[in-house]
Amino acid sequence: MDAEQLRENAHKMVDFIADYYKNLETFPVLSQVEPGYLSKLLPDSAPNHPESLENVLADVQSKIIPGVTHWQSPGYFAYFPSNSSTAGFLGEMLSAGFNIIGFSWVTSPAATELEVIVLDWLAKMLKLPEHLLSSGQGGGVIQGTASEAILVALLAARDKALKKVGKTSLPQLVAYASDQAHASMQKACQIAGIHPENCRLVKTDSSINYALSPNLLREAISEDIAAGLIPFFLSSTVGTTSSTAVDPLSALGKIAKDNELWFHIDAAYAGSACICPEYRQHLDGVEEADSFNMNTHKWFLTNFDCSPLWVKDRSALIQSLSTKPEYLKNRASEANMVLDFKDWQIPLGRRFRSLKLWMVLRLYGLENLQCYIRNHIKLAKQFEELVAADSRFEIVVPCVFALVCFRLLPAHNDQDFGNKLNQDLLDSVNSTGKIFISHTVLSGKYILRFVVGAPLTEENHIISAWEIFQDQATLLKSN
Asked: Where are the N6-(pyridoxal phosphate)lysine residues found in this chain (predicted)?
């Protein structure tokens, strides 16, 4: 493809995507297809000869889009958001156009150096401590997801601990988190060779809104030490998946320091909100962290994937993850003049992801990003007020950021019946195609999760969504 062919086809593709966004509200938010639908519509082998872009896009329209769940729809209120934006999209286009594989500085100096600069910018917006910036012994690196971030932190912590206590002590290492921590914590332990029974998930409850209790953590650590085990890692969460619980970072950081644990903070979802001064308090205690992670591809207008991780001591990551094959050696790396991000992550290859974050920060600016976050939180509070005003429903935990956890109350105090009632409500609401929500379970209760965060969501979408809940609740109650 020459430059003119690229220009022609790229215009067609941009027009197609622009039309997609223009018509986004006409599609069912949750795909309504049955499993295996696509194999009935596409041939069982690839074509021998080239087809036109027009024909391919026609198939995208008629065959692919019906099987898409539309994460950018203003009626998307499930899981957590996965933001797209004009700035993020343009940055992604530019990255795809360059198509560099920036595993070391020499493979494309701009990719490494822009990543360092942009993550320092973002760290300053979050008011992270100086030791997490590139000017000190630490610094930031973009991972693909928060799952990768916690894995590399855990690996660094594991190797640091084994260096101290001996390699044969691996079966004795214990990692801690709350039972509300993301499942990536358990997966990281599996990959790192931490025995499943040594991945300690401390029980939480409604009395402190499902945050990790420092007292229960201390007890668990003391019991493990008494049993001859070796505590080495603590993961805390700012904005848990189920209910956006915020763990008490300052108290947990002190416990980690007293017991020489690596202290990781997972702020994948709620970290974005902390660029607003009124929410920055939720990061108090981050100065004790050995590693801190957030996902700019969730709620920060940056297209997936882009998950910044900052570490206090980059040498811990490098010692754990570095390889030095002959074919990758070069003068700059050998002289320790540069950073090679291949040594900060699991894969060798890496995309030029800092471009899209750089463009988001420049094309929106801090004030607009703060307004964007605040508007979603305002809309979530409005939805919470609508739920609270209807006596048929209850708010399960207070809305901290932009997630509302609620449920439809059963006629009798029967938990099993109440769980079935709310599952039926979720299914009936999602089957309308107008909105899409997800669920969780807290204290044995089936809970509906309503997350405001799609870029196109406005007040009228919140009001329309609540009307759907009311209508479907009335139908269920009358049956």
From this structure: 298
